[in-house]
Amino acid sequence: MPPDLAPGYPRGYLGVMQLNEALAGDALNRLKRAQGQLASVISMIEDGEECVKVLTQLAAVSRALDRAGFKIVATGMRHCQAARERGEQPPLTEEELEKLFLALA
């Protein structure tokens, strides 16, 4: 069991793969932007805006969330590859990474 695993958690527990500050900032910026866009969509619906405008903004929210998720999964893939190259046990298995990736699809 790698030393960075929290006791009592199974191997591959997502809390093990910490996001570095740069990635966390990027992902948070994307998520905050999506949050603002979603608030706008809600207001548009409450104000009776046209469906096309609402759906266009909703699609933008969806893309922003997808991009944040894919950015995080890509980082996980890089962490795992780097661990393998160092001869260490990666924090997530390939199956776990695939499951995360497919959850976003």
UniProtKB/TrEMBL annotation:
Instruction: Point out the coiled-coil segments of this chain.
Output: none
Keyword Iron-sulfur part of the UniProt annotation: no
Q: Which ranges does the record mark as transmembrane?
A: none
Example GO biological process: negative regulation of DNA-templated transcription
Protein family membership: Belongs to the CsoR family.
Q: Does the keyword Metal-binding apply?
A: no
Originating organism:
Catellatospora bangladeshensis
Name the chain's protein. DNA-binding FrmR family transcriptional regulator
Could you give a GO molecular-function term held by this entry? DNA binding
Keywords attached to this entry: Copper
